[in-house]
Amino acid sequence: MSDIASWVSQMLVGCKLTIELFAVTLVFSIPLGLILSFVRTAKCPKNTLGRVLYCCVEWIVSGFILIMRGTPLMLQIFFVYFGLPYVPVIGPYLTFDRFPAGAVAFVLNYGAYYAEIFRGGLLSVDKGQYEASKVLGLTSMQTKFRIVMPQMIRIALPSVANETIILLKDTALVTAIGLSELLKVTTNIVNRTTNISAFAVAAVFYLIFSYILTVIFRKLENKFDF
Hints:
Elements: H1 2-41, H2 48-70, H3 73-83, H4 98-124, H5 127-135, H6 140-170, H7 182-193, H8 197-223
Helix pairs in contact: 1-4, 1-7, 1-8, 2-4, 3-4, 4-6, 5-6, 6-8, 7-8
């Protein structure tokens, strides 16, 4: 029991970094995903200049999402931490410490995933809602935020919950750049004590965090169940 108590105290230090990375990613990737989803679902302007600008922005956003979703997150972490400093001209300004590098990679990666989830939610809202809003005299902004957004959130919540739980587990990937999060601390304990029971203790931590997230999202789903 004394060994387990010692392990838990060390793992709590790793949990702090895990939670910090998880929180930073969630706070920045969800707004990023919303912005990207709005770009993907925006209507193409009728004038020529607006159409050209729209096509350029939509192409950039689509390419970004394709790259983020089509390449491994581990590779993206390595690129941000090891690769960006070698980019010509601007490389010296893109040098990050370990935690910021991991956070940047996570935010960009999960922003792309959340963007597709939100886009699916926006496209699932019945087109009749837009027509009804026009009849009521609502502006496009009022329609988007008062009518469409609540319905999109309700539709997207289960997928967001699933992706958020995956995010919690993916935080272990920053071990690759030397950050001492929960799994890294656990691995060090196992290497030092040759007792693999520490992995079971770490699994309990992940299960507790996942259960808490599940309860939170269940309550949110009940709140938006209209």
